[in-house]
Amino acid sequence: MVKLENYSGLTKKQEDLLKKHYCYGSFALLNINLSQSDFVFHTRAAAKHPNTLVPILASSWLQMRNNSLSLKSKLRTDGLTHFIFEMSPKSIIENTKLKAEWKVSQVKGVQNAEPSATLEYSHPSAKAKLTFVENPLQLKGNLTIGKPQYGVGLDGKFDLTSQKLSGYNFALWFFRKHSKVVLKHVGTNADELALGNVELSYYQKLSPLAHFGSKVTTKLAGGETSIEFGGDYKYDENTLLKGKLNTDGKLGLAMSRQLNKAMTFTVGSEIDTKEVAANRFHDYKLGFRLDFYHQ
């Protein structure tokens, strides 16, 4: 049975369909995942494309967990440190989760700490999340109300220093059998209340082997509209094929192949179809990804 989703998960299927496996953001990417019932270890290293600020970026995170507690720590070679502590006090308050985060990043040698505390509540007909952030001093919250088949969602951000709303988003969604439509307003002006962008996302399960997704974004201020659509097809038991196209003429292609139970190889590319039409072929991207799993 389909369950009610939180605000950030309303368009997850569409976003995964149009983003996941397209690994051309890096030339080469290596992922190693070790998982047991009480811990998860993940490490990755990415060789970026030439002329990038960080040519090689690596990170590792370790998560220790049990039925009600979870502690996760992450380190990255660009100076990012991230700790997350989660607790689900089922014996005290049902359907709630408490989360404390501490994130430290470095920009030009200057450390910036971002501590935060979050309270989440889940109910069959409502999901809510409230976060207090210290740097900058903000209060973030989102709420979804309805049924799995339809409902509304609100997402906002309040600046405690200036005492004004700095983020404002709204969503409507409709789900029927194997299709889902999500209509969102995404605020783009943090200084004052104003119309931002309207996003219309669509997801369709065409068959057990194929899926289709699209996203239409309209900037209400200027009237500009962009469209992106794509899909995937499970060619055989171990091979997944994906493709997408947007209104800028960028064509993305990806193939993911499970070599064995512990290893998956993915190749992704992006081509500018406008250059191909003009008999030029300079602006293209290519990336490779190798995933190792052990449970």
From TrEMBL:
GO cellular component: mitochondrial outer membrane
Origin superkingdom: Eukaryota
Segments crossing the lipid bilayer: none
Cited Gene3D superfamilies: Porin
GO molecular function terms noted in the UniProt entry: voltage-gated monoatomic anion channel activity
Coiled-coil segments: none
PANTHER family listed in its UniProt record: GH26960P-RELATED (PTHR11743:SF70), VOLTAGE-DEPENDENT ANION-SELECTIVE CHANNEL (PTHR11743)
Name of the molecule in the record: Uncharacterized protein
Biological source species: Blepharisma stoltei
